[in-house]
Amino acid sequence: MKKIFGKNPQSLGRIKFDRHTLLLLIIFVVVMAFFSVVNSDKGFISGRSLTSMGLQLSEIGILAIAMMVTSLVGGINLSIVAVANLGSVISGYFLFLNYPPEVAVGTTATFTNIKMPDDPSTWVLVISLVIPLVIGILSGILNGYLVGYVGVPPILATLATMSVFTGLSAGITGGRTITGFPEQFSVVANETVVGIPIPFILFIFLTAITFVILNHTTLGFKMRMVGTNDTASEFSGINNKAVIMKTYIMSGVLASIAGLIIMSRTMSAAYEYGSTTYVLLTILIGVLAGIQSGFGNVLNIFVSMLILQALSTGFQMLLQTVRGSTFFKDFSWGVLLIIIFVINYLVRQKKTGVKKSSGQ
Amino acid sequence: MAEELLRVDGIIKRFGGVTALDDVSFSINKGESLTLVGENGSGKSTMIKIISGVYTPDEGDIFINGNHYKKMTPIDSIKEGVQVIYQDFSLFPNLTVAENIALNDLIISGAKTVNWKKVHDFAREGLEKIKVKIPLNALVGELSTADRQLIAISKAILADAKLLIMDEPTTALTRNEVKALFKVVKELNTKGIASIFVSHKLTEVREIGERTIILRNGRKIIDEDAKGLDVKTIEYQMTGRHIDTSSIEYSKPKQDDVLMKVENLNLSHGFFDVSFELHRNEVLGITGLLGSGRTELALALFGQKPADSGTIILEGKEIKIKSIFDATSNGIGFVPEDRIKEGLFLPQTINNNIAAKVIDTLKNKFGLLDLKKKVSLSEEWIKRLNVKTPTGELPASSLSGGNQQRLVLAKWLAFDPKVLILNGPTVGVDVGSKADIHELIRKLASEGMGIILMSDDIPELMHTCNRILLMRRGRIVEDFQRETTNEEDLNNELVASDVEEEAKR
Lengths: 360, 505
Hints:
The structure holds 2 protein chains of 2 kinds.
Chain A: H1 2-5, H2 15-38, H3 47-72, H4 80-98, H5 122-150, H6 154-173, E1 178-179, H7 187-190, E2 192-193, E3 196-197, H8 198-216, H9 218-228, H10 230-235, H11 240-266, E4 268-269, H12 275-288, H13 298-318, H14 326-352
Helix pairs in contact in A: 2-13, 3-8, 3-11, 3-12, 3-13, 4-5, 4-6, 4-11, 5-6, 5-11, 8-9, 8-13, 9-11, 13-14
Chain B: E1 4-15, E2 18-29, E3 33-37, H1 44-51, E4 59-64, E5 67-69, H2 74-79, E6 82-85, H3 97-109, H4 116-129, H5 145-158, E7 163-167, H6 175-190, E8 194-199, H7 202-208, E9 211-216, E10 219-225, H8 231-239, E11 258-267, E12 271-279, E13 283-287, H9 294-301, E14 309-314, E15 317-319, H10 324-329, E16 332-335, H11 339-343, H12 350-355, H13 371-384, H14 401-413, E17 419-423, H15 431-446, E18 450-454, H16 458-464, E19 467-472, E20 475-481, H17 487-504
Parallel strand pairs in B: 3-8, 3-9, 6-7, 7-8, 13-18, 13-19, 16-17, 17-18
Antiparallel strand pairs in B: 1-2, 1-4, 4-5, 9-10, 11-12, 11-14, 14-15, 19-20
């Protein structure tokens, strides 16, 4: 543990965050231990259960990283879920244009389901997978332009673009759910490699890539500096606008990859999937992971995600037979957050020894 | 008159292994004016925080108005009439003068609705008590620093202050404003309100205080009448070393080697027709009061607020400076005036702060950030500029003012600029660090860098510059050679423009 988290503290931002990672890992171990005991008869730590956990946490985990990178530069990106959905919807629309369902002569097909032929063109499939990524990049450019160049506060800018993207998706689909995506797409969400679901592998991969970008590239360094003090970064010759633009593009691309996983899992696309619940959840994960503007470690996002999923699955198993057991998930997440706040408060107070006083 | 207001006895305060205050005792009488001086890290801020109840001393006693405290809370302190005016004044910039002054009373009264007439009457009364006139409906954020300070004082007086503590109040004031401030405080002293001034500016120490206390390394070194102390003595007692300015070696600029030439530079509402030459190996001072256009000129040369018209020639080639990127890519560096807001990434590590400008050069062969190189670069500059820290992994906020300023300098020196613009490089920096920074500036110039130093600190200009330009209302009005001028002349010229501006109002 020391070796992973203690060796190069500056690469993780601040020494404090080593402690936070440690705290999260301890909580994770405690939670896993607790449920493996109380749920031992139900097979909490069984291959099947772990696989299903890995599948469930990945899409939100990737969205949480998309949120995190913007938090790091002192921003927020409320449009991530809208971007994920818009990508799938436009991808679906592209497939629909190529493979419309058969309709009676004289009427036009409404855009609800795609009629995939048995041997679809590889090109069409590839393009339909690239489309979401392009949407992610374009959304990032728009958000980055509004926040970095026009100077709109991030929360307002992305609230606006969230509405625009959701509106676009709703307009294109006419509010309906698109079905009939090519069978080939379902591979991502349904296959495993040595027992590990592909989405989870993607989540690990994207966590690693983000870790490298944030801690081992000049872009990551500049993001931290911009997030810490954008005036000082400007006066240090850092191009704030470009850094913010790149950050939101990164966020958009991550969001669209999450969208692809959702599309693959549900084999459908809808304008309202996940909507605001997911956005709030990613903010909660960021807080749990101790992300602040200028400081934060993507590994904490990863571990936080593991904890939340373990709590969710664990309580679901434990309270299977109890009515309203799904509410216990939200409850336990809230309690966890409060526990983290209190621990951090106590640690900080012990360290500084400064009395809290109002107004002084 | 000589009634004791506050006495601290044998105060000891430790932070971890560091003893910030080591057996300090002193007292202050009603209506007395005391100056507290010391270098950064000498313990003066800690002392103030103990008097105001923010810190609890490890040992020692506090007596206020005859009440004995072992442990004192900020509320106790305020109840006993201690009011501290911090450097940031703790005012709300988006509220009006009246609202700011009446705020505390409004909250304490517990009224659910606001009686605006009462608010205005209250605020007017507060300003009258210190005999100043500031429009009650003006937004505090739009006022000058001096006015904001006066508002903070009147707020304190209305809170029934018996002891007014001011933490480096004169840092951002012009000389006339400082005089006005001193007058207000002296007036309050005659009414029985005691004052403690914390200051770095040695000349002021004698102007304001009846008594001076000097702290060094947490110990009280001197506690005596200010009249008996001259600047040299205070300087010596603060630092424990003599700062000799007589044997300074100045670099000799090469007159035929013009590094940078500025012609007819203009910025509306900033400066007009500014032309000057900067030679290689030269330290060029540009002075003027706040509002004279010197800060605007500095920002224009750095591209933060580009000039409207005019030409800038660097090493014989005309360059366009329309952005900070233009300036830095032409090798122009800039140490800003406000190191907290513009210079530093306070919560980030010292290493990150030093590397911030040159980060793009710290890549390995895969294009990734070379963390080892970053640390070794930072360590090298920590050593070269003598930044006092156990490790570069501590946040910049852990450093004292003087060391923080070294950090900002290090960030730019690592970039190795051709021209370095310094805007008030020693504001709020202690005497020892100041002398070190001055020496560094002279050394950099002698090594070939061209330096433009913006400052209104006359001794600073005289200790570092080869030539000094005086700005007044956006224009360069005079050009002094250091050899043929002295501090007094320069001071008179500077103040003359102040008087002129005052008359214009």
